Amino acid sequence: MTRIDCNVIRDLLPLYIDGACSQQSSDLVKEHLESCPDCRNLQASMSADIKTAAAVPVMDGKKMFRHARKTIFGIIIALAVMIACLGINTGGAFEGGPANIGELITTILYCIFWGVFTVVSRHIGPLVTTSFVISLLSAISAINGLVWRLLGEGGFIAAFISIFTSIPFYGFRYFMGWTSLYAVASVLSLGWLIYTGYYRRKIEQQMKQK
Ligand SMILES: [Zn+2]
What we know:
Elements: H1 3-18, H2 23-35, H3 37-55, H4 61-95, H5 101-120, H6 125-151, H7 155-166, H8 178-209
Helix pairs in contact: 1-2, 1-3, 2-3, 4-5, 6-7, 6-8
The protein binds zinc ion (ZN).
């Protein structure tokens, strides 16, 4: 077989696999494949590719509805947790003294909630974005608070940004000072941010492939 023959056959292969070429071309390809192992291998791998592409699940209406319901449910729960946490911890956080056991439990539940939420929803685009935005705010706020505590500078703006840490994490004041609290919150928030950032990028890449 000459090289040109192979090239012609390879041009025809996609049509041949789809069963879309004329009888004459089909016979020609078949005859060539019998005698040319290279083209036969190519045909096998092209057929496999087409099968895999056909096997990619298409999201049907029902699935999309369930997906949307999960997303809305997730966002409502997240909002409820944030509001409950604000309601319980704000007073103590503004006074600044040690936290009580109720505030400690609130902070622990806040951390557990976001941990579970982030892991469970890591493949659901809008929820990963929700988690990513909150973790980004949390990380900025916690690092800002830590720097503010260590340098004692930053004024009103630093105090304002740190609210996003000082209120939800206030329960840790049950057994630590503000500086340690901001340090712990920084570590937790950065870990959270890296995790959500990783899954957010993964989802973006999958979207690009489709
Ligand atoms: Zn060939």
